[in-house]
Amino acid sequence: MRIAIVGYGRMGHEVEAVAAARGHEITARIDPAAPDAADQEATPGALNGADIAIEFSLADAIEKNANAYAEAGVSAVVGTTGWDDRKETIAAIINRAGIAYVYGSNFSIGAHIFFALTQYVSGILNEAPEYDIFLREIHHAMKQDSPSGTALTAADRVIRTLARKNRVLTETAHRKIEPDELHVTSSRGGSVPGVHSVYVDSAADTIEIHHSARSRAGFALGAVRAAEWIRDRRGFIGVDDFIRDILRLQ
User: Fold this and answer.
1) Which residues lie closer than 8 Å to 23 by C-beta, 6 or more apart?
2) What is the pLDDT of residue 105?
3) Of 64, 112, 140, 143, which is the active-site residue?
4) Which CATH superfamily does the domain covering 2-107+216-247 fall into?
5) Which of 24, 112, 139, 211 is catalytic?
6) What CA–CA distance (Å, rounded) separates 68 from 78?
7) Residues in the chain with pLDDT < 50?
8) From CA 53, how far away is CA 224, in angstroms rounded?
9) Would you kindly state where each structural domain of the chain is located, as residue ranges?
10) End-to-end CA distance of the chain
């Protein structure tokens, strides 16, 4: 498979290494700032010859890149975060073009096992009112958004499953937490690839669900596997559909 890498930073380099190890060819390296990228923008010309694009870039470029994929007829796997408010616009672009576009905040297979465990435990807590639940995430100092998309995905699993939690609080709380609030806290520093923890706490004990990424390799592997998975598919597809299929989740 011939892959164009859109966003040739740390994740882009990791994607390149994983893709090459799995026998794929890199046709383009696209990034406005990376000195070792051959192209600065994802144009149809830059995408020429690619079967698929794998994108880890900035949210500001999401619509422009989607239009380029549509014009070039190139499907894409997109791990860029911070563009939830533009999903309808991007979906319309992709569906008109008849290509595939798999998007998600986290392509790590391990992270999705973490999501599944979080959702399962949240369902159990409906019968255990003495327990509260909250989330914490830690990332490297260079990460530009907070909370992370992964933390927000985990929070969404809680909100959808645990009846007594109705809203997510992501800011510092200079007050007590209301019973229906799910508090998500973020820390930034150092070179941490990503740590996410769910705490289930009562007066008697604490249960932790913890996912710690040792490197970006797991994220890159998931993205490359998603690229392999969508080759014969079409449409605007959330990463959950990909994960459910490969892990045979209900």
Assistant:
1) none
2) 84
3) 143
4) NAD(P)-binding Rossmann-like Domain (3.40.50.720)
5) 139
6) 13
7) none
8) 10
9) 2-107+216-247, 109-212
10) 30
What was the pLDDT predicted at 145? Answer: 87
* CA 34 – CA 93 distance, rounded (Å): 27
Question: Tokens representing 23?
Answer: 């026998």
Q: Are 52 and 42 in contact (CB under 8 A)?
A: no
Quote the CA–CA distance of 72 and 196 in Å, as a whole number.
Answer: 37
Q: Tell me: the pLDDT tens digits for 137-168? A: 999 999 988 999 889 999 999 999 999 999 99
| β pairing state of 25-30 and 2-6 | parallel
The alpha carbon of residue 88 and the mean position of all alpha carbons in its chain are separated, in whole angstroms, by 18
Mind listing the pLDDT tens digit for each residue in 88-101? 999 999 999 999 99
In terms of Cα–Cα distance, which of 36, 38, 99, 91 is closest to 72? 99
What pLDDT score does 56 carry? 97
Residue 140 is a catalytic residue: no
Overall pTM surpassing 0.85 (yes/no): no
Looking at domain 109-212, its CATH architecture is 2-Layer Sandwich (3.30)
Q: Where are the beta strands (DSSP E) in 11-162?
A: 25-30, 52-55, 75-78, 100-103, 132-139
Closest CA to 219 of 39, 35, 56: 56
Query: Catalytic residue at 112?
Result: no
